[in-house]
Amino acid sequence: ERILTARRMGFKVHLWCFSDDSRWYDFIPFVGDGRVVDAPDEVHLRHIALCCELFGDLADVICIGLEVDEYFASVSKQAALVAKAKGLVTVPIGIHYTSWRRVADAATVGADVFYTQHEFASTPAVVQSEVARCIEVLQPLGIAVWAGEYDRDSDSLEAAAKGQAAMGVSGCAGTGTGR
User: Fold this and answer.
1) CA atoms of 68 and 75, how far apart (whole Å)
2) How far apart are CA 130 and CA 132, in angstroms?
3) Which of 80, 73, 64, 81 is nearest to 33 (CA)?
4) 8-state DSSP, 140
5) Euclidean distance between CA atoms 157 and 129, whole angstroms
6) Rg (CA), the chain
7) In this structure, are residues 44 and 34 in contact, taking their beta carbons and an 8 Å threshold?
8) What distance lies between CA 150 and its chain's CA centroid?
9) Torsion of CA 134, 132, 137, 15, to 10 degrees
10) Burial bucket for residue 126 (CB in 10 Å: 0-12, 13-18, 19+)
11) Quick count: other Cβ atoms within 10 Å of Cβ 107?
């Protein structure tokens, strides 16, 4: 009901299937370095399917997960998760990495949306430049760019300035913090 209320108020709902440091990962087999086994196994695909089944009709965008490269190291695994979601819903599917520098990977996994992440110490000008670079690479491919993470404190004046700088780039679809 709260999601429906938010949508009626004009909010766009972005569902994140795997969250960073999620307790969900406690139920998934790990390798010694803390990363999930690098294969598109049924556990992860079932989780994506469950997210789509439960919330797909409520979301405007479904993001495979926050910082997916921390848990799913291979681009082929990420692409399998994106493909699974795309086969179940009609809304855009997004992906988020630990760095905006993974823009080339974002171009190859089949996602419709790329959520950028920037160093928290970055200035508004740096965030703007990095967002512009991502748009330059991804917009011709039809992939939307959201400035996702750029400040640890979403309510700070610094975060607001970075968000405004990102939105100053033609083609930036939105921001995740600070605005």
Assistant:
1) 10
2) 5
3) 73
4) G
5) 19
6) 16
7) no
8) 13
9) 40
10) middle
11) 16
Where are the alpha helices (H) located in the chain, listed in sequence order?
2-8, 42-55, 68-71, 75-86, 103-106, 124-138, 157-167
pLDDT in tens, 18-37: 877 655 554 555 444 555 55
Give the pair of three-digit tokens for residue 60.
């405007």
Look up the pTM and report it.
0.86
The CA–CA distances, whole Å, from 108 to 6, 62, 78, 114, 141 equal: 32, 17, 10, 11, 10
Closest residue by Cα to residue 113 from 143, 139, 141: 143
Q: Tell me the pLDDT tens digit for each residue of 99-155.
A: 999 999 999 999 999 999 999 899 999 999 999 999 999 999 999 999 988 988 888
Q: 125 φ, ψ to 5°?
A: -65, -40
- The amino acid at 127: V
Q: Which residues contact 175 (CB under 8 A, 6 or more apart)?
A: 146, 147, 148, 163, 166, 167
